[in-house]
TrEMBL record:
Domain of life assignment: Bacteria
Protein name (database record): 3-oxoacyl-ACP reductase FabG
UniProt keyword Ubl conjugation present: no
Gene name in the database record: fabG
Protein family: Belongs to the short-chain dehydrogenases/reductases (SDR) family.
PANTHER family: 3-OXOACYL-(ACYL-CARRIER-PROTEIN) REDUCTASE, 3-OXOACYL-[ACYL-CARRIER-PROTEIN] REDUCTASE FABG
Organism field: Kocuria salsicia
Length: 241
């Protein structure tokens, strides 16, 4: 764990043990913040980050994780709601349970963590929230009615929080990645990946570190006047939407 300094913030990244969340956590560790990542599996985050086990579908588990973090580092000042899952199927075949499970992790899970974090924001009189959405939240994608709905919902959540808590020193923004090279996209068949690549104006998948760069900007001092915004990190895939 990095030494706690007077300028270090307490940063929580949900799902920070791998993929995009891990790259985001690495960026905050490099900046000298006190970084905590959650995972369900208990898999560790990057070197220099502290890991707590938490399942965002379970409010008691989220509350226990926050208590553990607060006891060690004080209130969370920066929350990155990144944990997410997919359960793709075409609409006619999608099971209601698979719709609900994806909403429960990606959208209600974000609600659970941001609601719990807000207690600390009120004490600190400031807070920064970044929701990791997806280009699919505004372009849509076949087979992803559940996922697209959950990711679009995060935009409404960030904007409602902006209006509700903007005067209390809290900003809430959205980063919407396109296709990023992580386990989630590595599972795709090669021809599907090639098809996606051909639709991306910069003609490549993104790096998780490029998503992290947008997140660190949104929680920087320079972004204090940015709230309710969406930053696409998608190589231009979503332009026009
Ligand atoms: P990964 O599948 O690599 O990682 C997902 C993370 O979420 C893991 O750390 C996982 O933890 C965690 N997680 C899943 N369910 C829960 C839960 N119930 N409670 C707590 N943690 C949970 O995904 P990516 O890194 O690719 O994606 C990260 C985010 O970025 C997601 O929200 C995803 O929708 C979004 N995104 C990804 C894109 C991509 O191209 N990869 C594109 C656009 C958006 P555990 O290890 O414990 O399972």
């Amino acid at each position: 764990m990095t030494e706690q300094t007077s300028t270090a913030r307490t940063v929580l990244v949900t799902g920070g043990n791998r993929g995009i969340g891990r790259a985001i956590a690495e960026a905050f560790v490099a900046a000298g913040d006190n970084v905590v990542v959650t995972s369900r599996s208990g898999g560790d985050g990057p070197d220099g980050a502290h890991t707590v086990r938490a399942d965002v579908t379970d409010s008691a588990s989220v509350d226990a994780a926050f208590k553990e973090i607060e006891a060690q580092f004080g209130p969370v000042e920066v929350l990155v709601a990144n944990a997410g899952v997919t359960k793709d199927a075409l609409l006619v075949r999608m099971k209601e349970a698979d719709f609900q499970d994806v909403i429960d992790t990606n959208l209600t899970g974000a609600f659970r963590v941001v609601q719990r974090a807000t207690k600390g924001f009120m004490r600190l009189k400031r807070g920064r929230v970044v929701f990791i959405s997806s280009v699919v939240g505004y372009t849509g994608a076949p087979g992803q009615v559940n996922y697209a709905s959950s990711k679009a919902g995060l935009v409404g959540m960030a904007r409602a929080i902006t209006r509700e808590l903007g005067s209390r020193g809290v900003t809430a923004n959205v980063v919407a990645p396109g296709y990023i090279d992580t386990a989630m996209t590595q599972e795709l068949p090669e021809e599907v990946k090639e098809n996606y690549r051909s639709m991306i104006p910069v003609n490549r998948f993104g790096h998780a570190s490029e998503v992290a760069a947008a997140v660190t900007y949104l929680v920087s001092e320079g972004a204090a006047y940015v709230s309710g915004a969406i930053i696409p990190v998608d190589g231009g895939l979503g332009v026009g939407h």
